[in-house]
Every structure is written in C-alpha cells, then in structure tokens.
Amino acid sequence: MEITGVNSKAYTSASASVEEDEEMQETQEQEAKEYGVSVKEKEEKDTTEFSSSDYDEADVEEKAENYLKNILFVGGLTEASEAALQNYLNTFDVAKFMKDYGPFTSTSEISAAMYAAVGSLIKQQQDE
Predict the structure, then answer these.
(1) Helices (H) and strands (E) in the chain — how many of each?
(2) Of 3, 33, 65, 119, which has the fewest Cβ atoms less than 10 A away?
(3) Of 66 and 53, which is predicted with more confidence?
(4) From the CB of residue 61, how many other CB atoms can be counted at a distance below 10 Å?
(5) CA distances in angstroms from 20 to 10, 13, 27, 28, 46, listed in the order given
(6) Contact 59, 95 (CB under 8 A)
(7) Which pTM was predicted?
(8) Nearest CA-CA partner of 64 in 33, 32, 91
(9) Are 121 and 91 in contact (CB under 8 A)?
C-alpha cells in the first residue's frame, strides 16, 4: 500500500521545530549552570490543597444563620413556612446541629446539612 499526499516539507519543519526546542532547552540548562541555578528536570504541576480542619461552632453558626437568612430574604414562602424558619433560626442550637450532622470541613457540607434539617419547613406560595 502506498501513501500519497504527504508533504515532506511539513515533516521536516516539524522535526526541525522539535530539534530547535531541544537545543533551546540545552542552552537554558547550560546558562543556568553557569549562573549557579539548579535546573529542574520536570515541571511542577499546580496543586490545590484544602484545609482538613473542621469548622468550629462559631463558623458553623454563622454559615447556618446565613443559609436561613438567604432563604427568608428570597421570599415567596408561605407565612407558616416563614414563621417556622424564623423560629428555627431563633432557637438554633449549634452544638446539637454539629452533633447530629457534623463535623464540617466545608461550607457546602453545612449547607447540605441545613437543607436536611429545614428542607421540610420550606414551602413556596402557590401562584393564584
């Protein structure tokens, strides 16, 4: 089987480009050695590290209150639902909440636990 339509110029230019990159890297390594700078063989990859520490009671209480206030602020709730959420907010026991749903290492975990705790209290008004 014969391969046709291959441009030899494209192949040679691609290989020349690779050779130029290798030469430039060698030049940079030599210059780095001259100036006493160490050369890394592999590039370091970007990494993200998350804190593994748990949120304390003050943090959890703040996030939980903000969660409930946002629901109340958006509106569209029935009067009974608003009253129940406001009552939950006023009587919120952070220690019991953390015992039941914690420990928490992120705000999203707190939000999910808050939804589990008050999801049944949220009732939207029906458009009439």
Answers:
(1) 5, 0
(2) 3
(3) 66
(4) 18
(5) 15, 10, 10, 12, 27
(6) no
(7) 0.52
(8) 91
(9) no
